[in-house]
Amino acid sequence: MTPDLLSRRQLLMTGAAVLAGGASARAHNGKVHVMIENLGFQPADIDVKAGETIEWINRDPFAHTATVKGGWEVLIPPGKSATHVATADDTVGYYCRFHPNMTGRIKVVA
Amino acid sequence: MKTHFAALAATCLALSATFAMAADKPTDPQIAHIAYSAGVIDVEAAELALSKTKTPDVVAFAQSMQKDHEAVNDMALALVKKLNVIPEDNATSQALAKAAEERRTELGKLDGAAFDKAYIDNEVAYHRQVNGALETLLIPSAQNAELKSLLETGLKLFQGHQQHAEHVAAGLK
């Protein structure tokens, strides 16, 4: 296998991993990013470790929240971002209190 | 209370009739005007609510309506400017405005818990009607792709508002 072919294969595999999701939410700074765009959480489902920071980046002109029913709530103003540090019991579903048709899920993994 | 429900039912009927009248496919300038008018109506309803209620969930809902509808109307204004479209007043917009004025008068007579319930029930009904019109008439009729896309964003936003209103309504009972 030539170095050129190898790098091409690696590139393709990276692309496949990104398409499969999960990896794309993790940034270099260790935060797990969730984009909010066009009234949706992207990705809607994320895996995090306890102690990791989840950062929601709101690209909508509307205020949103990440709200866990009976639990915590993060307010994410329009054009701004907000964070939550995941705890061991944060395997939860969440929604936007202002637009409850926006939903997401967090899974805490070891 | 009875009169209120009668008024609400009348408003719903008026709205259904309003959109039914527009069954002969509105043009893009008319759609832009209808969507913008529908937003303005809800901002005005929110302003009335903010002047009358102190219930935290109702205040939060009204503030959200005011900000969201203003934001989406700003997007609509930017788009019509970009597309060089002049929104065209039409019978549907006028009927919407008339129905809203009647509703505001009815709401203006109420206070306290009665106002909260009437306002939120109206918001559920109003968003349901507007969403129905967006889905069945306005989005399918829109010719310009960017206008259609903005209406689709509006539909997602207003479906969220309807659910938010339903949650608040459930909490008031």
TrEMBL record, chain A:
PROSITE patterns: TAT (PS51318)
Domain EfeO-type cupredoxin-like: 13-106
Matches recorded under InterPro entries: Cupredoxin, EfeO_Cupredoxin, ET_Amicyanin, TAT_signal
Protein name: Plastocyanin
UniProt source species: Mycoplana azooxidifex
From TrEMBL, chain B:
Keyword vocabulary terms for this entry: Signal
DUF4142 domain segment(s): 27-167
Presence of the UniProt keyword Signal in the record: yes
Signal peptide limits: 1-22
Keyword Signal: yes
Domain of life: Bacteria
Membrane-crossing segments per the record: none
PANTHER family reported in the protein's UniProt record: BLR2558 PROTEIN
Entry protein name: Putative membrane protein
